[in-house]
Amino acid sequence: MAAERETDDGVALNDVDRGEWTMRDEDARWYVRGAVDATVSLVESTFGPDGMEKLVATEDTQNQQELVRVDDAGRLLDAIERGDGFAHPVAALLVDGVDGMRSGLRDGTTAAVLLAGAFMDEGFELIDRGLAPSSVVVGYGIARARTGQVLDDLARPVDAGDRGTLADVAATTMTTNLDPAVRRRLADRIGETVTRLADERDDGWIDTDDARVLARPGAEAGVYDGLMLSRPDDAGANGLGVTEPIEDATVAILDAEIDFEETASVLDGGDGVQLSSPDAARRYRSELETRIDSTAEALVDRGVDVLVCMEKLDESIVRPFESAGLAVVDKAKYPKEDVYRLARATGGTTVSDLRDLTDDRLGQADRVGQRRVGDEVWTAFEGCPGPVYTLVADGGTAGEAERRREAVEDALETAAVAAMDGQVLPGAGAPSMAVAAAVRDGAAEVSGREQLAVEAFADAVERLPATLARNAGHDPVASLTELRSAHAAGRAAAGVDPETGEPVDAWEAGVVEPRRVFSQAVETAAAVTERLLTIDAVLYPNVRLPGYTPRPERN
Q1: Where are the alpha helices (DSSP H) in 83-215?
Q2: For the chain, does the N or the C end have fewer beta carbons within 10 angstroms?
Q3: Is residue 21 part of a domain?
């Protein structure tokens, strides 16, 4: 027999009327709707090029308290989840549902959340008027099918070698508060990088892991052919690193520390070093020094110029290696993936033991140099044979440089998606307006109550351009009215001009996004809506759920 559980009031669960622990019908919908509205309110003001920023108290990856400044819904939701998280189960379901947008596309998270909120609002209104939730879901499905047809007609092809269009995609993605000239400069570099990555492969895949993004105040911005290895400012404290540029460098790469003690023959046995006499200690030190010196000489004899190690090396190893003529670059573990990226760049292979370092595992670089940038040491491996590139951005302050780095990383992924998919759409809310117009036109062909849901779908997708206009300081009703007129006149690429609030041809304005971003936002929002809209009861025996009241925003 199962043990009897208790509620948090100390009352046996079997003695509780479960009906008192259950919300049904209208109460359940209120519970769901409240969580969705609260989540939408978190991200709504970040949408578009004139969106606001948020300060979020959260934790970093080391569980240390930090205050982060974000202007992107994906990063905002990530920051909240790293901190206290989403205690409300419905909010957690919504965030989990749109998480794929963030991890897969690095764009469209805000649109997905806003669309989910709009679909839920419109759907609940219909349910309150007597329409069955299943009819709403069916009507939304009909409208989604029509959406795909509209986007087929609206989309344009894009080639991986089209740097201009890919730069436009990158500029559209970078909605952070950037000077227009800075945005365009960064976007051009992203377009160049994506084109270079595409040129290295024949299968159409673009591996953005082969592009390293760095940003620091005072950095020399640009795109570098090779890897810029960044290390903390205390890196090289035991040595000199690359004191002078090295031409035609041969590189050895280790992903583990170097331990000469484990092979010393004077050990008395057991774990660790156990020395029973002063003579044994002297013999141990002598053999250890000889082993280090001979290893360094062997590496130099094989032509190795630079030794890169993920872990920090002891001074007793670094000094003899440098004396033999090796440049030692240790503590290359921030991030640790960089040593593997360096291996791909130089054509080498990482090893965990120097005894495994054969000639065919050595890498090459035309030039290796070192510089100090802010609180980091950068070692540049340039002219590498492998398809690895480093995109460097600058910034007036450390915070500004970090925001640029995040914006560039997101835009790089989005531009790569456009290049791989080969299709782009006009941005600025134009796809939403085109879909809404076409869905409304086709609603008359739908019989039954589902027609109401089809029309509600059209109203919901118009929330995106309305939010763009509102965040830019314009009257959303007036902007929508003018946009509807423009699309009725056949201007299928008409979107919101953030400067005026009036219709603008997004193609001509260079506001371009991958087709997959909008398509996936619609599909994700519709899938989340289908899960939440059909909830007619909320059961939570033995659990007292907290309310969901976000703290006031301070933009």
Answers
A1: 89-105, 109-128, 133-154, 163-173, 180-199
A2: N
A3: yes
